[in-house]
Design goal:
The protein has helices at about 10-15, 35-40, 75, 95-105, 135-140, 150-155, 200-210, 220-235, 240-270, and strands spanning about 45-55, 55-65, 85, 95, 120-125, 160-170, 180-190. The chain is α+β, with helices and mostly antiparallel strands and about 300 residues long. The chain folds into two domains: about 5-205 and about 275-280, no CATH class; about 220-270. Strands 1-2-5-6-7 form a five-stranded mixed beta sheet. It has a two-stranded antiparallel ribbon with strand order 3-4. A hairpin with an 8-residue loop joins strand 3 (about 85) and strand 4.
């Protein structure tokens, strides 16, 4: 953050540097967020709805975006640098594939004057998605945790989630240096989503229909399940109270050894960092009252 742009409120700081309505570095003054939204709509990639504050029709409180498809390079045409004409009058009149890729990020950089806007993002039911490689990077930032919720899982079951963002300053130990400005993302599941779409039975049926997505179990998980099965059989073989007590002690010792081993691994391979809570950066808009139409 440069001295001439500094303000305690990061939104006021960016207003000094970016054109009105921009929350990203403009490559051209007419390459606005509205353009990138139009690119995604024009290419039939998304369906978008903006919801207004009943008391202030100029204020977007939240928006919904249904992902219909994500164009791969081969779907765009033989020349990725050749512009496609936008079907409605607009300046600029067209876009390249690289503009299309940028649109998936810059389109989301919308905020209202209260700094409380959120996106409800969801997929279309009964749709097969083929994501290009760059979309996986998009998911790292805009989707839920990749290790838990894969983008294919969400698209296959037409799941939804909430995304919102705020500016924040990074922490710096140098007193004579202004902190850098960062974009901080908040992602969470939508509390009103119908979870029956992805209950265990539905997932089981889906994998029966798509066996190509099944893969070998994780070795550590397999070892754990195998040990669990041996322990269950071990305890079931206890024919008296005395033998059961003895067996329980042995099981406890085994579990303690496993716990020590897993704890030491966690200490070596992972570290967690607590984030301090700041009401300015929290967005509690859960998009209540929205009815999703996946058809």
């Amino acid at each position: 953050m440069e001295l001439e742009f500094w303000d305690k409120n990061p939104f006021k700081a960016t207003a000094k540097a970016f054109p009105t309505g921009f929350h990203f570095k403009p490559t051209a003054i007419n390459n606005s967020r509205t353009l990138y939204e139009l690119i995604l709509v024009d290419s039939n990639s998304v369906s978008i709805k903006h919801f207004k504050d009943p008391k202030d029709q100029t204020l977007n409180t939240h928006s919904t975006i249904q992902i219909l498809k994500v164009l791969q390079p081969r779907h765009f045409g033989s020349d990725l640098n050749k512009g496609k004409k936008i079907l409605v009058p607009f300046d600029p009149i067209g876009y390249t594939y690289w503009d299309y890729v940028d649109a998936w990020t810059k389109f989301f950089w919308h905020q209202n004057t209260r700094f409380k806007h959120s996106w409800l993002i969801y997929f279309k039911t009964n749709t097969i998605y083929n994501f290009p490689n760059w979309f996986l990077q998009w998911w790292d930032f805009f989707g839920l945790i990749l290790e838990i919720f894969l983008e294919q899982y969400f698209s296959s079951f037409a799941l939804s989630w909430i995304f919102s963002w705020q500016y924040r300053y990074s922490k710096t130990e140098k007193t004579n240096q202004y902190p850098s400005l960062q974009r901080h993302a908040f992602v969470k599941c939508w509390a009103q989503f119908d979870t029956s779409k992805a209950d265990p039975e539905q997932v089981k049926l889906w994998f029966q229909s798509h066996p190509e997505f099944l893969k070998a179990a994780d070795p550590e998980t397999s070892v754990f399940l195998n040990q669990k099965s041996h322990l269950a059989a071990f305890l079931a073989g206890s024919k008296s109270k005395e033998s059961l007590t003895k067996n329980l002690k042995e099981v406890l010792q085994m579990l303690q050894q496993e716990e020590k081993g897993s704890s030491s691994k966690k200490e070596e391979t992972s570290s967690t960092e607590e984030e301090e809570e700041d009401l300015f950066y929290q967005n509690e808009d859960d998009c209540f009252g929205i009815c999703l139409d996946n058809n």
